[in-house]
């Protein structure tokens, strides 16, 4: 039909006004010409299609004929000598495989149920794997690699080998410290071999307690004899274990004979026992006084770390551990000017002093002259003496002279500390480990008498402190104090000149604090001359704030005139375990820690008197526990106990790290938990009397204390309050286990399981390449850690400076190990900065580390070097985390993180760290030390990546989880802004639905302005309804296909993976097929 005619005739010619005849004729001609061209093109197209189909059919026929000829040639060649084309099997499989794959593609668009679709996808994956077909432009994915077998399996090699007799004894006496080979051979000369039949007594009540017993074969039962005649088993001693009391060891060496009062040992079966008399140690100590100091210090340290930690923190015993009145060491009568009331001191100055001998009959060793134990003559350089003392006495690193002198300098120069304006704990650590400027002052200035001052700042600033007595009374009181302390330290009258310059006297009013619990800077030996001191200890269940404010402190005991206090902290070198206050008007004499260490250098024998003073204060309960406790030393990979074994004891981790692994019925192994210093392992199974549910092994070289079941039963019967404590402990453990299992969606985890904690005690820092600024990185991390607590940075140079250039030799193995363990006890975390080569120090760092931080440059190549692979072999069971550094000046963002992680399957976590300019500035070691000596005096930026990493390592990370709610998710932006204004750092983010989007924006940008802008742009895109209408689909599982929504997400973030975000991030989704949740920590 002619359109123009219709237009001309319609509406009675109304359109004639707009369409003229000339114009209509022109349009008609153009349409006719165009139709001719369309017809010609259509004919050409039909001819081309026919030609194409013809040749395609012809090619297919040729291929079929070729295949037929090939098959006929193969058939004929098999029957005769004819040779022709052969259709190889590989070609045949390839041909039919591709044909099958084409058919699968044709049906892939059809709708199948979930089960058939799963099978179809499995067949297609199988076909691609056979035919080696790769998908083009396939995005990089995270490789899921199972941890190596060594990561989850304990070492079995040599665990069942029976060591020789000498090794039995060597392992048993390690509780006294380490002895060099010549000393150990001297001790072996005194050993005796005892043969016991079943029922024979090894020792019984009233027998001398003067030997160390090591069971070579058989079993020995150690039990308590109660007053009513009943017996209660403490522990069963098996092959390789020992029976001894460290407290009795100190009694014997101090010349105080000890006897068994409540403990008896009887053979359960025929047994062979090695007996080592304690008197054998006296000969060794006479020739090696430095060994004696080391042994006493080790005993005191383990007394505090094991007995007090177990009985106080886990069983709730405090005052039960000490006696309110000490056992009499002797009697002393002080002059009335000393023992009278403080108010009458001024009028009683003419009476003479009468002091009776205070020492008990001395041991053969103590009858020798004290001067024979002098190591060397006094050195005119006090600092040299201090450092020499630290080097001569192997574990004398417990006596950190350099650290004490630095603190004394700060005490005498208060302007320095106040000008720094940082916490005291950070001042002490920073002054100790920051690059030194001037390292010494005169020791005389730190040890002279200050009659008007006291070490503790609380006493210095107390308004209640009274002025000291002057004139002749002051001299009389001073001489009385010197004489009393001389006798308490066991010094002869000829040695009075040694302590006379260092004894200080102070008069106190009620409630004046001498030292607070946890303070390691003001440790002194306190001797009460008049009045009474009260010793307090914080409640183990109190919060951190309550402990800092000294709320709910428990009274432990009183210290009366003639008694001494402070010996335990002095010998261990650790912080004070008690708070000491004046109960009323009192007068005390004291000696500072540095002065005591200088006296100890000249007269090593005083450690026995100090140790004996500590032992006399302990209650009989502690002595009974001392018989039952054992110390275990495990190398990396050794098992503490194995799954399905009987549970007759629990363990306390003193140093090192343990890993708990469960083996499922199918043989698959899974990590259940990890335990660090101070954790209790295996207590739930022991109390519930069930077999071990997991295998616990040492991740690195570790030291544990073993508490047998019998000891727990004895304590429960004597102190019923312990039962309440245990019920509370088990309830919290069981509740945490239930929460963990419900969160994991399963109920297969044992009750003993605790989630893997990320609170580490030791961290090793390893560079990937030589150009990594490891020293500045370590300083920055150290700076951030100082805001959390005391921290130590160790390098090979620092260790050699402290312990000598030969410290890494095999002969000094135990000395180095003990010193490092003591440093770990003093600090919440220790940083081990490794060398850039596989040196002995690097190997030591791998053995000591709870976690290894592999530090690299994020903008460099991700290839793995030879040094990295060697590190992985050295520490296969140690957790490793990757740290990538980015310069702040380039505004670079993390990218290609997946390549780094896929190349390092041993890495369990990664961190992106944005570094300030000073880290990448190339400077000499001296200039770096000088720079950071000033940086460490400033406050760290709590929002920096270094602070985030520091909080992760110490288990103090702050997480943010954002919920869903659609448009209500816009409120998340306001909350993020409020959190930033409040100064709260965000260390990790999780989210669901709209919360996942907002959380990912923050992790990617970390700038509230940019996050707000991108969130606004995304919200505007979501308001375009026509785009969402185009996204409608058949409503099987949802109304929309999600393509448009995913496009808006991609437009907002770009090609960014979760691994490339600055802050650790995860999102939560629902699996509607399995009806469970899924946690996503990787992907785009």
TrEMBL record:
Keywords from the named record: Developmental protein, Endoplasmic reticulum, Hydrolase, Lipid degradation, Lipid metabolism, Membrane, Neurogenesis, Phosphoprotein, Transmembrane, Transmembrane helix
GO cellular component, as recorded: endoplasmic reticulum membrane
One of the record's GO molecular function terms: phosphatidylcholine lysophospholipase activity
Ranges of Low complexity composition bias in the record: 343-353, 403-413, 438-448
Cyclic nucleotide-binding domain span: 175-302, 525-600, 606-733
Motif segment (GXSXG): 991-995
Cellular localisation: Endoplasmic reticulum membrane
Gene Ontology process terms (BP): lipid catabolic process; nervous system development; phosphatidylcholine metabolic process
Domain of life: Eukaryota
Gene3D superfamilies to which the protein is assigned, alphabetical: Cytosolic phospholipase A2 catalytic domain, Jelly Rolls
Protein family: Belongs to the NTE family.
Entry function: Phospholipase B that deacylates intracellular phosphatidylcholine (PtdCho), generating glycerophosphocholine (GroPtdCho). This deacylation occurs at both sn-2 and sn-1 positions of PtdCho. Its specific chemical modification by certain organophosphorus (OP) compounds leads to distal axonopathy. Plays a role in the signaling mechanism between neurons and glia that regulates glia wrapping during development of the adult brain. Essential for membrane lipid homeostasis and cell survival in both neurons and glia of the adult brain.
Protein name: Neuropathy target esterase sws
Species assigned in the record: Drosophila busckii
Lineage: Eukaryota, Metazoa, Ecdysozoa, Arthropoda, Hexapoda
């Amino acid at each position: 039909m002619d359109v123009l005619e219709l237009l001309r005739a319609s509406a009675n010619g109304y359109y004639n006004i707009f369409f003229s005849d000339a114009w209509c004729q022109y349009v008609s001609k153009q349409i006719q010409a165009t139709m001719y061209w369309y017809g010609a093109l259509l004919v050409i197209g039909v001819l081309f299609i026919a030609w194409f189909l013809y040749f395609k059919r012809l090619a297919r026929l040729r291929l079929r004929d070729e295949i037929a000829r090939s098959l006929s040639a193969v058939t004929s060649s098999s029957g005769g000598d004819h040779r022709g084309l052969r259709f190889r099997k590989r070609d045949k499989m390839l041909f039919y495989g591709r044909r099958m794959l084409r058919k699968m593609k044709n049906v892939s668009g059809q709708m199948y149920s979930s089960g058939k679709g799963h099978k179809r996808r499995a067949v297609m994956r199988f076909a691609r794997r056979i035919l080696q077909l790769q998908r083009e432009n396939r995005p990089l994915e995270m490789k899921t690699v199972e941890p190596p077998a060594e990561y989850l399996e304990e070492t079995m090699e040599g665990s069942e080998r029976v060591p020789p007799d000498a090794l039995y004894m060597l392992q048993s006496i390690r509780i006294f410290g380490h002895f060099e080979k010549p000393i150990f051979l001297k001790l072996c000369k005194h050993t005796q071999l005892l043969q016991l039949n079943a029922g024979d007594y090894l020792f019984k009540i009233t027998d001398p307690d003067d030997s160390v017993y090591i069971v070579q074969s058989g079993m020995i039962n150690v039990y308590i004899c109660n007053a009513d005649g009943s017996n209660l088993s403490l522990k069963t001693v098996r092959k390789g274990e020992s029976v001894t009391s460290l407290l009795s060891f100190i009694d014997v060496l101090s010349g105080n004979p000890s006897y068994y009062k409540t403990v008896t040992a009887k053979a359960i079966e025929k047994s062979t026992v090695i007996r080592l008399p304690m008197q054998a140690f006296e000969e060794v100590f006479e020739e090696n006084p430095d060994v004696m100091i080391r042994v006493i210090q080790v005993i005191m340290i383990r007394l505090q770390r094991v007995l007090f930690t177990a009985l106080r923190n886990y069983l709730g015993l405090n005052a039960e551990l000490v006696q309110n009145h000490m056992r009499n060491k002797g009697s002393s009568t002080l002059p009335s000017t000393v023992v009278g009331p403080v108010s009458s001191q001024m009028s009683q100055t003419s009476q003479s002093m009468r002091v009776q001998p205070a020492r008990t009959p001395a041991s053969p060793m103590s009858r020798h002259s004290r001067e024979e134990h002098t190591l060397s003559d006094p050195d005119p350089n006090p600092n040299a003496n201090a450092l020499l003392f630290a080097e001569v006495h192997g574990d004398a690193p417990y006596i950190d002279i350099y650290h004490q002198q630095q603190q004394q300098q700060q005490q005498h120069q208060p302007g320095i500390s106040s000008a720094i304006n940082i916490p005291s704990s950070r001042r002490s650590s920073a002054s100790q480990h920051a690059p030194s400027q001037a390292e010494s002052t005169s020791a005389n200035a730190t040890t002279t008498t200050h009659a008007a001052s006291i070490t503790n700042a609380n006493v210095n600033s107390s308004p209640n402190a009274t002025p000291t007595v002057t004139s002749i009374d002051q001299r009389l009181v001073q001489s009385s104090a010197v004489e009393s302390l001389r006798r308490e330290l066991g010094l002869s009258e000829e040695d009075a000149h040694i302590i006379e310059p260092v004894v200080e006297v102070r008069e106190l009013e009620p409630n004046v604090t001498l030292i607070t619990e946890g303070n390691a800077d003001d440790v002194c030996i306190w001797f009460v001359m008049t009045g009474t001191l009260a010793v307090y200890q914080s409640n183990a269940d109190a919060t951190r704030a309550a402990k800092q404010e000294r709320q709910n402190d428990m009274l432990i005991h009183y210290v009366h005139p003639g008694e001494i206090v402070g010996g335990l902290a002095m010998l261990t070198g650790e912080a004070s375990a008690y708070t000491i206050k004046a109960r009323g008007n009192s007068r005390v004499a004291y000696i500072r820690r540095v002065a005591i260490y200088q006296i100890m250098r000249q007269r090593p024998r005083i450690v026995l008197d100090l140790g004996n003073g500590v032992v006399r204060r302990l209650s009989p309960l502690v002595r009974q526990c001392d018989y039952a406790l054992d110390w275990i030393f495990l190398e990396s990979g050794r098992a503490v106990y194995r799954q399905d074994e009987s549970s007759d004891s629990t363990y306390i981790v003193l140093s090192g790290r343990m890993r708990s692994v469960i083996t499922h019925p199918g043989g698959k192994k899974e990590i259940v938990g990890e335990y660090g210093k101070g954790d209790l392992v295996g207590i739930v199974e022991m109390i519930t009397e069930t077999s071990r549910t997991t295998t616990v092994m040492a991740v690195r070289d570790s030291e544990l204390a073993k508490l047998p079941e019998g000891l727990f039963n004895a304590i429960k019967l004597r102190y019923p309050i312990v039962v309440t404590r245990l019920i509370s402990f088990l309830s919290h453990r069981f509740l945490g286990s239930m929460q963990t299992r419900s969160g994991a969606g399963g109920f297969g985890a044992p009750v003993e399981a605790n989630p893997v904690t990320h609170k580490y005690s030791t961290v090793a820092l390893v560079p990937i390449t030589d150009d990594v600024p490891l020293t500045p990185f370590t300083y920055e991390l150290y700076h951030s850690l100082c805001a959390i607590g005391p921290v130590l940075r160790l390098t090979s140079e620092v260790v050699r400076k402290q312990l000598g250039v030969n410290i890494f030799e095999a002969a000094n193995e135990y000395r180095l190990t003990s010193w490092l363990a003591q440093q770990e006890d003093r600090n919440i975390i220790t940083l081990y900065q490794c060398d850039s080569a596989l040196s002995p120090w690097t190997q030591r760092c791998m053995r000591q580390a709870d976690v290894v931080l592999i530090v690299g440059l994020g903008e460099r190549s991700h290839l793995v070097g030879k040094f990295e692979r060697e590190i992985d072999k050295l520490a296969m069971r140690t957790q490793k985390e990757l740290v990538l550094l980015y310069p702040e000046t380039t505004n670079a963002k993390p990218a290609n993180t997946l390549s780094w992680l896929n190349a390092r399957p041993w890495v369990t976590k990664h961190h992106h760290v944005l570094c300030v300019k000073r880290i990448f500035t190339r400077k000499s070691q001296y200039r770096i030390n000088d720079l950071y000596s000033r940086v460490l005096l400033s406050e760290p930026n709590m929002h920096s990546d270094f602070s985030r990493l520091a909080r992760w390592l110490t288990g103090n990370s702050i997480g943010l989880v954002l919920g869903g709610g659609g448009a209500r998710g816009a409120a998340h932006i306001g909350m993020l802004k409020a959190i930033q204004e409040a100064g709260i750092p965000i260390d990790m983010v999780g989210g669901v639905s709209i919360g996942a989007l907002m959380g990912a924006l923050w992790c990617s940008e970390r700038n509230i302005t940019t996050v707000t802008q991108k969130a606004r742009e995304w919200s505007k895109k979501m308001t375009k309804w026509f785009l969402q209408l185009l996204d409608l689909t058949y409503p099987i599982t949802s109304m929309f296909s999600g393509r448009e929504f995913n496009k808006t997400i991609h437009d907002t973030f770009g090609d960014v993976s979760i691994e490339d975000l600055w802050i650790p991030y995860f999102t939560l989704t629902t699996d509607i097929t399995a009806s469970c949740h899924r946690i996503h920590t990787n992907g785009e």
